[in-house]
Amino acid sequence: MWIITIHSKDNLKMFEFYTEKEAREKFEVIEGCKILSEVIYFNDQRLVES
After folding, report:
1. Which residue has the higher pLDDT, 9 or 46?
2. pLDDT, tens digit, for every residue of 5-29?
């Protein structure tokens, strides 16, 4: 999961995205103080070695 956090003096907003591509596309057009983060859950089966 990818998260964009937008911070302003009086406000904090967070937006969730399932794909990196979608998050990066939105990140480019959003204005303000912003942070792009990837959230990795320890129990995500896609990331567990077989």
Report:
1. 9
2. 999 888 999 999 999 999 999 999 9
**Cross-strand pairs, 22:** none
List, as one string, the DSSP characters of 3-46: EEEEE-SS-EEEEEESSHHHHHHHHHH--SEEEEEE---TT-GG
Region at 10 (left for phi over 0; alpha for psi -120 to 50; beta for the rest): alpha
User: Considering just the CA atoms, what is the radius of gyration of the chain in Å?
Assistant: 13
Count Cβ atoms below 10 Å from residue 39 Cβ, excluding itself: 9
